[in-house]
UniProtKB/TrEMBL annotation:
The lineage of its organism: Eukaryota, Viridiplantae, Streptophyta, Embryophyta, Tracheophyta. InterPro entries: PFKA (IPR050929), PKF_sf (IPR035966). The gene is PFK4. Keywords: Allosteric enzyme. This is ATP-dependent 6-phosphofructokinase 4, chloroplastic. It comes from the Eukaryota. One of its GO terms (molecular function) is 6-phosphofructokinase activity.
Length: 128
């Protein structure tokens, strides 16, 4: 019961559930899985912490200066305010055979699921 005397409860499937003594049962609200826990499988290292601190400081300074609609990031080795419209104006692609992707896989200890050049050649030979 609320302070005004109204019945308070959780309706499940259109009908209220109640216990043997008549008390209204509140159903399970579900579980919250925070997506940030799914992003990294390994703990952050010192350089990650420093980089995140720099980004956070830049974002706070920009917000306190009155800027809106921006993000913070490195441009020519300097921290810069970047308009969100500029960041999202065209999609950025990642070359899965490039050096930056290899660095990401190495730093996060993830396996590469890309077939090697020899496997690609073998697959092409099987098609003939």
């Amino acid at each position: 019961m609320s302070n005004r005397g109204d019945s308070v409860g959780c309706e499940v499937g259109g009908a209220r559930r109640s216990s043997v003594c008549g008390s209204v049962l509140i159903g399970d609200g579900g579980r919250l899985i925070d997506p940030t826990y799914m992003i990294r499988a390994i703990p952050s290292n010192a350089s990650d912490n420093i980089y995140c601190t720099l980004l956070a400081h830049g974002a706070v300074h920009g917000a306190m200066a009155g800027y809106t609609g921006f993000t913070v990031g490195p441009v020519n080795s300097k921290q810069a305010y970047i308009p969100i419209a500029r960041v999202t104006e065209r999609p950025k692609t990642v070359e899965l055979t490039g050096r930056m992707w290899a660095r990401l896989l190495a730093s996060t200890n993830q396996p590469s699921f890309i077939a090697s050049d020899q496997e690609i050649v073998d697959i092409e030979m099987m098609k003939i």
